[in-house]
Specification:
With 322 residues, this protein is of the alpha/beta class. It has eight helices and twelve strands.
């Protein structure tokens, strides 16, 4: 009996020694998870999807922030073109300007022209407007003072465009008639002065209107601003808003310099020409020109150069990809 007890104790000591040796010799392993916990051997699909979506949202916000920063980087002055000739004469400046505005830069195989021939949009398939109309994603801004032909707006509204007409003479701030939105507002080259409270001011810069309405793009921008067009065009250029416009339709008046346009006559025409060259540098190309035969041929208060005092232009942004 004593011999058996001693053998059992010796066997026990051997087993304990072997167990201790094995525990010390093998590498450390992570502690086991409690029963019921999932063992993560790689990316969890749901977590990965959430991260990808979050990264996508962050990327989108970064892109929007970049665009906003681009839009906020304003210039103070346009780039004036060199004088037409060293003489700095009105005749030389007017000749260059009139040659430039009467020569379309691109052809449009499918223009839609208003009955009077003045206003036109380009429906050429190589540009975006036709495709946007088919997808019901087209947006139109129409600014006009006084009476104006609305045939083009009605056509665009009936063809799938969201049309916004701006008229500061309206009694209500906003009205919705059929396929058009009407707003008691107009476009200007500056925002209202916040210090002027008593006077009702229904004008804003285009960048402010776009921001207020939550719109990032306008497929067609039409404006007849009765001699305010030059300063408004200058504001669109300086604030980089033209990047948001697909086609620009503009009526210009040549019988005088325009509101708040200073300088002698040759300087004024050089300024007009420089604005149009800025449009060209912003990838806008002239495809339609119309001179109003009913208007007198007056150029800066002078009955010279045989030029109508009113022209209507249409440009297409050749790099516009909404």
């Amino acid at each position: 009996m004593g011999l058996l007890l001693r053998l059992a104790l010796a066997l026990t000591c051997v087993c304990v020694s072997v167990h201790v040796y094995l525990e010390v010799a093998r590498p450390l392993a992570p502690a086991p998870l409690p029963v019921g916990w999932p063992i993560r051997t790689g990316w969890d699909p749901e977590t990965e999807n959430r991260l990808e979506k979050r990264e996508g949202r962050m990327k989108g916000r970064d892109e929007d922030s970049f665009r906003n920063r681009q839009r906020k980087v304003h210039r103070w002055h346009i780039k004036l073109q060199p004088w037409a000739k060293q003489s700095h004469s009105l005749e030389d400046e007017a000749k260059r300007f009139l040659q430039y505005i009467t020569r379309p830069q691109v052809s449009c195989t499918s223009p839609r022209v208003s009955p009077d021939g003045a206003w036109a949009v380009c429906l050429d398939p190589k540009y975006s407007l036709t495709h946007r109309m088919q997808r019901k994603q087209c947006r139109v801004y129409s600014f006009g003072l006084g009476t104006n032909d609305r045939n083009l707006e009605r056509y665009l509204a009936g063809s799938g465009c969201e049309v916004h007409r701006f008229d500061p003479s309206l009694k209500q701030p906003h009205q919705h008639y059929g396929e058009m939105w009407l707003h008691r507002l107009s476009v200007d080259w500056r925002d209202p002065n916040p210090a002027v409270i008593a006077q009702r001011q229904y004008t804003k810069k285009l960048a402010t209107i776009l921001n207020d309405f939550g719109h990032r793009q306008v497929d067609v921008l039409k404006a007849d601003m009765e001699s305010a067009e030059w300063k408004i065009l200058e504001n669109l250029i300086l604030e980089g808003v033209l990047d948001s416009v697909g086609q620009l339709l503009l009526e210009v008046h040549l019988h005088w310099a325009g509101f708040e346009v200073a300088g002698d006559n040759p300087s004024v025409v050089r300024y007009w020409f420089s604005l149009l060259k800025e449009l060209e540098q912003a990838n806008f190309r002239l495809f339609h020109v119309h001179s109003d035969p009913t208007q007198p041929h007056i150029f800066l208060h002078k009955n010279v150069f045989n030029a109508s005092s009113t022209y209507t232009f249409a440009w297409v942004n050749t790099q516009w990809m909404p």
